[in-house]
Amino acid sequence: MRALAFVVTLMNLCWAGGPLLAADADNGRTLAERWCVGCHVVSGEQRKGTDIAPSFASIAERSNFNEEKLAFFLLEPHPVMPSMALSRDEARNLSAYIAEQKRP
Ligand code: HEC
């Protein structure tokens, strides 16, 4: 029983933001600046962009915004967006980065 409790505690520690499992928004930013800037305004500092695609800030502001759903969305090929073949981690990091842009 004690051993089980120990394992459960360990797992809880990991879920609660262990660096190995948590999405990495900083990495998401790097990815966004590499892959997404061509069409999206990906940060508040970016002055120039296109109007063909919504800015990441405006996506984060949507009332139905959901970080997990977005991560799944990013794994699917998008009709307008070229398929970027993101890994699961990359999709989660991007999603976390976009979520950060929601104004508190
Ligand atoms: C070649 C241009 C292009 C690139 C590069 C691109 N996008 Fe897009 N993206 C679009 C366009 C255009 C839309 C709007 C699609 C629509 O309105 O149906 C869009 C829409 C989206 C949406 C919103 C979908 C929705 O629910 O309305 C998200 C989220 C998104 N892109 C994320 C990304 C991310 C993350 C990247 C980088 C990994 C990226 N995009 C790269 C063109 C692009």
From TrEMBL:
> Which Pfam families has this protein been placed in?
Cytochrome_CBB3 (PF13442)
Record carries keyword Heme: yes
UniProt superkingdom: Bacteria
- Gene3D superfamilies in the cross-refs: Cytochrome c-like domain
Q: Which organism's genome codes for this protein?
A: Rhodopseudomonas palustris (strain BisB18)
Q: Does the keyword Iron apply?
A: yes
Kindly state which keywords UniProt assigns to this record, in alphabetical order.
Answer: Heme, Iron, Metal-binding, Signal
Residues crossing the lipid bilayer are none
- Signal peptide range in chain numbering: 1-22
Show the GO MF annotations. Answer: electron transfer activity; heme binding; metal ion binding
- Record domain Cytochrome c: where: 23-102
- Could you tell me what this protein is called? Putative cytochrome C
